[in-house]
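note to self: dont lose this again. the chain is below, predicted strucutre after it. 169 aa total, dont forget to put it in the shared folder this time
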Amino acid sequence: MIPTAFRTERLDLLPLRVEHADEMSFVLGDPALHTFIGGTPDDVEALRARYRRMLAGSPDPAVSWCNWVLRLRGRDGLGPLVGTVQATVAWGGSAEIAWVVGTPWQGRGLASEAARGLVDWLTGHGVRTCVAHVHPDHAASAAVARAAGLAATDVVQDGEIRWESARDA
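---
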């Protein structure tokens, strides 16, 4: 599966490119974004290297790595990058999804909008099941998962709750 650009009400979701690292290093630069996932923000060079690895694709031919940046459309069209969504799509119709919106743009429903758009895009491309893993104390991410049509399960993996949605493709 190859990611293509698509739109939601306020966002353009653009396939990730290495060139996005310059702007994304600011978007992802707040250490608070790592509260639940651990680690620290990458600098521009580390982010470029990470994007190169991601764009090289999965070493497993039955798995596709699909990554998008989120561009907020401004009044005159082009706005800032504000976050990312990603999907690890496995042959057979399932995808593990994730999202992040930079701190300055949080609280506006952008993550929910992007996650809903991602699930819709994936469903339109034959994915039947979307899965996300959310830290039990991360209420905002739980709200995003719920808005994207996922429901919490009883499964806990690496300390995170598995959220899942099964849709007819």
